[in-house]
Design brief:
Layout (H helix, E strand, L loop, with lengths): L16 H32 L21 H21 L4 H19 L17 H8 L10 H12 L4 H20 L5 H21 L1 H8 L9
Helix pairs in contact: 1-3, 2-6, 3-5, 3-7, 5-6, 5-7, 7-8
Length: 228
């Protein structure tokens, strides 16, 4: 008869002295990343209003109808964040590494969105006037194109939870659904969507090495495989 393995790492464990400094560092990194994201978003928005900013052709967008999928893009994105937080609450050994790798993801995307500027593709669906739309817009999920945060962040979350089939499969599905939704809403160019999983994987592997001590908390969990 198989006995269920009890994970000795509890929510209280992250507040122990040997983890607390790393936890604080993760929150500081996340805060700095959001500052970078805000600066990059404001710059990208201002640049998009210039007369020299024009859209380019896209194999997918040229042939796809424009569909208003704000329910998925806005409310779905916020739901995905809350779902990720819920999984972290029940799996506290993932919290510190997730904070840091998410910060690197946000800062990396901010860097890329500030480099090259092309115009908004005609017919793009914008967030509405609702309260969730306001929260979504404040978090800057739709400013800038390369690379898609909607597609990349759930894929990154799936990589983090790779050893747990339920969250892994849920976030892989969410990544795919978001990818289709932002293309149909003409929110992103196709290159933004298809490049996002590769960017997320690269960020994950770099953080795996840079924050090896925090990643070891995940790999040291009982019977959990890692991402190859």
């Amino acid at each position: 008869m198989n006995k269920q393995i009890q994970d000795p790492f509890t929510f209280k464990s992250i507040f122990e002295r040997k983890q607390l400094h790393s936890l604080i560092g993760g929150f500081v990194m996340l805060g700095i990343a959001f500052v970078f994201e805000h600066i990059a978003s404001v710059y990208a928005l201002a640049y998009s209003l210039r007369p020299t900013s024009t859209y380019v052709g896209d194999l997918f967008l040229d042939n796809l109808p424009v569909v208003n999928l704000n329910l998925i893009i806005v409310e779905g994105a916020l739901f995905g964040i809350l779902l990720g937080i819920l999984f972290l609450i029940f799996n506290p050994r993932y919290i510190i590494f997730t904070l840091k790798v998410t910060a690197v993801f946000i800062a990396t995307r901010a860097f890329f969105t500030s480099l090259t500027h092309i115009g908004i593709y005609p017919g793009q669906i914008n967030p509405g006037p609702g309260p969730f739309d306001a929260i979504y817009s404040y978090l800057n999920f739709q400013t800038g194109f390369f690379f898609s945060g909607h597609t990349g962040l759930p894929f990154l979350t799936a990589l983090i939870f790779w050893g747990k089939p339920l969250p892994r499969n849920i976030f892989l599905w969410i990544s795919g659904i978001f990818g289709v939704a932002v293309l149909l809403a003409h929110v992103h160019y196709s290159i933004d969507v298809f490049a996002a999983p590769f960017m997320a994987y690269g960020i994950f592997k770099i953080c795996e090495k840079v924050f090896s001590r925090d990643y070891e908390l995940i790999t040291s969990a009982p019977d959990l495989p890692t991402v190859a």
